[in-house]
Design a protein that fits this description.
309 residues, alpha/beta, eight-stranded parallel beta sheet, three-stranded antiparallel beta sheet, 14 helices, 15% strand, globular, binds ligand TUI
């Protein structure tokens, strides 16, 4: 399973953990990196100094490569971008926007940059701007999503750029990983699978809700606002969709969701909290360690790709 991505990042297995808001903190990132994948701290909307602390804690737990995801809708993104350089973070992924204005800073510092993209146009733009790889994220993913499926997006991105492509969205096992490789990807990024990892600090109520969820329990809120968010359906998502249909203002909708991800992740409020998760949640049936998840997916994918059942 050596690919241009394992070479680029200096990791053992082509498995990357998504930079999920609230979820992707240092315990999870360190466990994924220790297990041979690439663990990622999700900076999301955290204060910049909290991100610095998180980075330092990962370094205490592992000597292996890790990354930080810079969420570009965060007004503090410029400070986070700078901290990444100051702390010598080896890899950056970006989400929910165009990281062009930070490319020079990161490239000059030797940071490997992998923007998350949801379209061919964005992938091309990022490759031209000097990205080392792109993460092509399909609409099956949890959280903030684009509109193209992983099945359609990954091969079109792979055809359009020369840099290696990481597939994300709807992948949680060896079959998904093998399929992604057939589509032209050289690594996979998984988020939802790692939400339910043993080392994930996510509240047990949230993990249990994902384990119980079925394929059709996935819902997208916020399509009308231009910021679609995929979640597992609950009272909160129903209320949001009702308000959206009734023409609520952006402000009213934001009031409803303010702090809702924290409510779900930290407080375990699966009724009023925002249960961000991908469409693959229905396939997750147990809580495993990051090492078990990575070993399982890689050995299953290798076996399938060798043509054995
Ligand atoms: O970023 C994500 N997923 C996220 S971020 C997040 S935190 C959040 N919480 C509430 C509201 C908004 C965000 C939760 N989940 N995935 C990566 C991703 N990036 N998916 C799609 C995109 C994307 C979209 C548009 C990347 C670039 C882009 O370009 C627009 C432009 O600026 O040209």
């Amino acid at each position: 399973m050596n690919t241009r991505i394992t070479e680029l990042l200096g990791i053992e297995y082509p498995v990357i953990q998504g930079g999920m808001a609230w979820v992707a903190e240092y315990h999870l990132a360190a466990a994924v990196s220790q297990a041979g994948g690439l663990g990622i701290i999700g900076a999301a909307s955290a204060p910049p100094e909290v991100v610095r602390e998180q980075v330092r804690k990962v370094k205490e737990l592992t000597d292996k490569p890790f990354g930080v995801n810079v969420m570009l809708m965060n007004p503090n993104a410029p400070e986070v971008a700078q901290i990444v350089v100051e702390e010598g973070v080896p890899v950056v992924t970006t989400g929910a926007g165009n990281p062009a204005k930070f490319m020079e800073l990161w490239k000059n510092a030797g940071v490997k940059v992998m923007p998350v993209v949801a379209s061919v146009a964005m992938a091309k733009m990022m490759a031209r701007a000097g990205a080392d790889a792109v993460v092509a994220e399909g609409t099956e993913s949890g959280g903030h999503i684009g509109s193209i499926t992983t099945m359609a997006l990954v091969p079109q991105v792979a055809d359009a750029v020369d840099v290696p492509v990481v597939a994300a969205g709807g992948i949680a096992d060896g079959r998904g990983m093998a399929a992604a490789f057939m589509l032209g990807a050289e690594a996979v990024q998984m988020g939802t699978r790692f939400v339910v990892a043993k080392e994930s600090i996510v509240h047990d109520n949230y993990k249990e809700r994902l384990i119980k969820s079925k394929d059709i329990d996935s819902e997208v809120t916020g399509r009308s606002t231009g910021h679609p968010i995929r979640v597992v359906r609950n009272k909160m998502s129903r209320e949001y969709l009702r308000m959206e249909q009734e023409g609520a203002t952006l402000e009213e909708l934001e009031m409803l969701t303010l702090g809702s991800l924290r409510k779900a992740v930290v407080d375990g409020d699966v009724v009023q909290g925002s249960l961000m998760a991908g469409q693959i949640a229905g396939m997750i049936t147990e809580e495993l360690t990051c090492e078990e998840i990575i070993q399982g997916i890689v050995s299953d994918a290798e076996r399938l790709m060798a043509g054995r059942k």
